[in-house]
């Protein structure tokens, strides 16, 4: 008869939480920067404006400037922390694209102009070969 209370006590002991603390605390901040970027055409150049809201650590924002598919310019902008940053890029005729990379991962792509549509006759010639 005295075995029942001991068995009941053993079963109830298994029903309690086995980890502490019950509140895991605040999550870690994201490691990815948060920024807002705008690209506007000016007389002979395109002006880039970047507002950094959150930056996990200082580092370089790599900028790749393209005309159509051709890489025209690569530049690095050092970001120290939250704030505003500006850059000027050479602007010519046609469609331009700016890609911003942080630690090798793309953060944004900004476009100026309209991309050329592929020539359907050119594509047919490539597909026949």
Automatic annotation (TrEMBL):
Name the record gives this protein: Lipoprotein
Organism, scientific name: Thermus thermamylovorans
């Amino acid at each position: 008869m005295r075995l029942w209370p001991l068995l009941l006590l053993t079963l109830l002991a298994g029903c309690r939480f086995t980890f502490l603390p019950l509140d895991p605390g605040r999550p870690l901040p994201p490691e990815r920067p948060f920024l807002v970027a705008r690209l506007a055409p000016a007389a002979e150049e395109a002006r880039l404006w970047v507002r950094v809201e959150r930056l996990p650590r200082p580092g370089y924002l790599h900028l790749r400037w393209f005309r159509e598919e051709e890489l025209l310019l690569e530049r690095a902008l050092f970001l120290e922390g939250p704030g505003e940053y500006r850059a000027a890029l050479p602007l010519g005729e046609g469609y331009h694209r700016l890609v911003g990379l942080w630690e090798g991962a793309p953060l944004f792509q900004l476009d100026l102009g309209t991309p050329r549509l592929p020539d359907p006759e050119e594509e047919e010639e490539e597909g026949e070969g």
